[in-house]
Amino acid sequence: MVHKIDTIKHHKIISDFRLLSGLTVSIEDCAYLTKAFQEYGVEDYYISNYEGNSYLTRYVDYFIDSIPCWEYKKQYLIPLIFRDTPDTQKMFHDTYRWEAFFLLLDWYLKYNPEKVIIRCKKNKQQVIDTAFLVFRLWEICDGAAFPIANLNNLSEFEQWNQIFHLIDTGKSFRRTKEFDATRVEDLTQLEIVIAIIKLKYQALLQKQGYQI
Predict the structure, then answer these.
(1) 33 near 5, Cβ under 8 Å?
(2) Residue among 155, 109, 149 nearest 133 (CA)
(3) Neighbours of 182 (CB within 10 A)
């Protein structure tokens, strides 16, 4: 992603009669990113409204007006609305993170869709909880990448995960079960985590001039 993307404030989030704000991107940048991410399944972009609750407001009901969104694989709407946090800024500074975003999104849609689909009113397409996925990427890339890179086998990972609970095993926001190596959902999630960590270190090596 050569084009520099600057986040901008979005002040049209209404929750409990309070006006909240988040970060978004301009329409021009949304159009640019739509083309850049077509290979991952982004098909078009819209300006849309929706009403629901998500990680954006810590699961408090809200209405959001006039937000740029991607149409994803004909079924989903990905609103480009983010929490005003450092992990959001990293999405636009670290080029590998959007590829990682779509890897993680596809895993959730297959194995735990309730976690990433916002319960919205009056929306034909299912709306994705973008802020939650950005948070999960922060957990993986910034919290877990280094320690996992130094683990030698699955047994060591299981011991580490019992302490840090990286693998998302619950239907609610909390992780409600331990990692289970016999469950397809847990193993495939671990595969995605490792793939994302590989993307991070490949990007670091490329920045240092190594050929990947």
Answers:
(1) yes
(2) 109
(3) 6
CA 181/CA 26 separation, integer angstroms = 43
Q: What is the DSSP letter of 82?
A: B
Confirm if 125 and 109 have CB atoms less than 8 A apart: no
Classify strands 18-24 and 76-79 as parallel, antiparallel or unpaired.
unpaired
Residue from 112, 76, 86 nearest 188 by CA = 112
Is 202 in a helix, a strand, or coil? helix
Range 54-82 burial, b when 16+ CB lie within 10 A, else e:
bbbbeeeebebeebbbbbbeeebbbbbbb
Delimit the domains of the chain by residue range: 8-207
Could you read off the pLDDT of 124-167 as tens digits, one per residue? Answer: 789 999 999 999 999 999 999 999 999 999 999 999 998 888 99
Quote the pTM value.
0.91
- Euclidean distance between CA atoms 121 and 170, whole angstroms: 24
